TrEMBL record:
Keywords for the protein's UniProt record, in alphabetical order: Acyltransferase, Lipoyl, Transferase, Tricarboxylic acid cycle
Pathway this chain belongs to: Amino-acid degradation; L-lysine degradation via saccharopine pathway; glutaryl-CoA from L-lysine: step 6/6
Top-level taxon in the UniProt lineage: Bacteria
Protein's UniProt name: Dihydrolipoyllysine-residue succinyltransferase component of 2-oxoglutarate dehydrogenase complex
Region feature Disordered, mapped onto this chain: 185-217
Entry GO CC: cytosol; oxoglutarate dehydrogenase complex
Catalytic activity: N(6)-[(R)-dihydrolipoyl]-L-lysyl-[protein] + succinyl-CoA = N(6)-[(R)-S(8)-succinyldihydrolipoyl]-L-lysyl-[protein] + CoA
Species of origin: Phaeovulum vinaykumarii
UniProt record similarity statement: Belongs to the 2-oxoacid dehydrogenase family.
Taxonomic path: Bacteria, Pseudomonadati, Pseudomonadota, Alphaproteobacteria, Rhodobacterales
SUPFAM superfamilies according to UniProt: CoA-dependent acyltransferases, Peripheral subunit-binding domain of 2-oxo acid dehydrogenase complex, Single hybrid motif
Its EC number(s): 2.3.1.61
Residues of the signal peptide: none
Gene Ontology BP terms: L-lysine catabolic process to acetyl-CoA via saccharopine; tricarboxylic acid cycle
Domain annotation Lipoyl-binding: ranges: 2-77, 106-181
Length: 509
């Protein structure tokens, strides 16, 4: 009985790949999930694991071949039928099977699922070093993506034999991070020591290159020693050649140019006095912070962003909250806050002004018949926006529970990518930090974001009398390309009316 090894799904828009490297040969014994080969696409490198244990009977697609999705790559003979073919590898290379006789099983630690639209991450911290004993599910390292931090647990118990991706390295969604000698103890260091030198290229050798990388180097007129490899074991990948080719023209004119006309340095700061520089600390920007900076700037550059303001008397909401908060918490097990009132008020207003809940897609406007409410949460690493899905169909208690759960997961860095995608409108509460008034920035591709602020007692005129009321400034930033001023003002007025008279929410008025 044989098991077929086929090309896995490569991505929504990727239909073919190149077989870059085979890590095993016909006749080799393979384990379940052992890496058999590496495929190269236009965007990422994909490792193909063994779907079953047994013996590699045949390689159908050789290195350098272009294959489509679901193409047959190889065939694995069942473990029970491995006895007959065993002499073949012995005849060609007698020493090959010998090292596997008494070795601990080596298990690869792979990058976990990062999210639908996330293709790479940065290795932020290793909690273990080579030679350390690890237990099942013990945290090995932490990865940093554009939006969240992901902890990588150990899939097996044993000894960390090799760290493939060091701290600071950028890895793709299918990369190998480390190797664990399964079942070994901390004193068994010979196995990792033997495997580490095998991975490192010889001092005088040029780094290895995949077939597609060799073609790209030939087309670009680059030599192998001019390209730095970022692939497995220093392997030169196609994207490495593209980066080297792009850098080559910029590097050529540098010696000839006048110093003043040289390309700008990485830092654009003005010179700093030596005594000041000694008291400064320079820290590399995290991927999350860099992504926040890029997205906020993109929002300003892309959308025709405008902000309109209003103020709301919070007396009605505060009265209801003070009257029912104890009963609410006793029944539902969650505190009654202000956020559920704002979510319900926004859902109510979005029904009347649907363009605030829409987005622009090319030449089309996409109107959404649902409300996935993003709630901005400040964390130690930056601002994230978890999404309360179908908030318009939820009650007060369900909204408060979901917001509390997402807020706790956000502060602990445990949010998944799915929990931060698909929002149609966002609420940002700067009031928790004491902000009296601000202009929130849109969360693309959304067309609206509501800014809440500090509740402050102020004198207002009610029925011809000056009275003291708890007032809050509201700010709606919107994309003027899709939302007109009338729609934006109407939306904010409806939110104000619903909050000043919460009974409107119950009667859908």
């Amino acid at each position: 009985m044989t098991t077929e090894v086929r090309v896995p799904t490569l991505g929504e828009s990727v239909t073919e790949a190149t077989v870059a490297t085979w890590f095993v040969k016909p006749g080799d014994t393979v384990q379940v999930d052992q890496m058999l080969c590496e495929l190269e696409t236009d965007k990422v490198t994909v490792e193909v694991p063994a779907p079953a244990a047994g013996q590699l009977a045949e390689i159908v697609a050789a290195e350098g071949e272009t294959v489509g999705v679901n193409t047959l790559l190889a065939q694995i003979a069942a473990a029970g039928g491995a006895a007959a073919p065993t002499p073949q590898p012995k005849a060609s290379k007698p020493a090959a099977p010998a090292p596997q006789a008494n070795e601990a099983k080596m298990t690869d630690v792979m990058v976990p699922t990062l999210g639908e639209s996330v293709t790479e991450a940065t290795v932020a911290t290793w909690f273990k070093k080579v030679g350390d004993a690890v237990a099942v599910d013990e945290m090995l390292c932490e990865l940093e993506t554009d939006k969240v931090s992901v902890e990588v647990p150990s899939p097996v118990a044993g000894v960390l034999a090799e760290i493939v991706a060091a701290e600071g390295a950028t890895v793709d969604a299918a990369a190998r991070l480390a190797v664990i000698a399964e079942g070994a103890s901390a004193g068994d260091t010979p196995a990792p020591a033997a495997s580490a030198p095998a991975k490192a290229p010889a001092a005088g050798d040029a780094p290895p290159a995949s077939p597609s990388a060799r073609k790209a180097m030939a087309a670009a007129g680059l030599s192998a020693d001019a390209v730095s490899g970022t692939g497995r074991g220093g392997r030169v990948m196609k994207e490495d050649v593209a980066r080297a080719a792009a850098a080559a023209p910029a590097a050529a004119p540098a010696p000839v140019s006048i110093p003043v006309a040289a390309p700008p340095a990485a830092s654009s700061r003005a010179p700093v006095a030596a005594e000041d520089a000694a008291r400064e600390e320079r820290v590399k920007m995290t991927r999350l912070r860099a992504t926040i900076a890029r997205r906020l700037k993109d929002a300003q550059n892309t959308a025709a962003m405008l902000t309109t303001y209003n103020e709301v008397d919070m007396s009605g909401v505060m009265e209801i909250r003070n009257s029912y908060k104890d009963m609410f918490e006793k029944k539902h097990g969650v505190k009654m806050g202000f956020m559920a009132f704002f979510v319900k008020a926004c859902c109510h207003a979005l029904k009347e002004v649907p363009e605030v809940n829409a987005e622009i897609d090319g030449q089309d406007i996409v109107y959404k018949n649902y409300v996935h409410m993003g709630v901005a949460v400040g964390t130690p690493t930056g601002l994230v926006v978890p999404v309360v899905r179908d908030a318009d169909q939820m009650g007060f208690a369900a909204i408060e529970k979901k917001i509390a759960e997402l807020g706790a997961r956000a502060r602990d860095g445990k949010l998944s990518m799915a929990e931060m995608q698909g929002g149609s409108f966002t609420i940002s509460n700067g009031g928790v930090y004491g902000s009296l008034m601000s202009s929130p920035i849109l969360n693309p591709p959304q067309s609206g974001i509501l800014g809440m602020h500090k509740i402050q007692e102020r004198p207002v005129v009610v029925g011809g009398q000056i009275v003291i009321r708890p007032m809050m400034y509201l700010a709606l930033s919107y994309d003027h390309r899709i939302v007109d001023g009338k729609g934006a003002v109407t939306f904010l007025v409806r939110v104000k009316e619903a909050l000043e008279d919460p009974r409107r929410l119950l009667m859908d008025l």
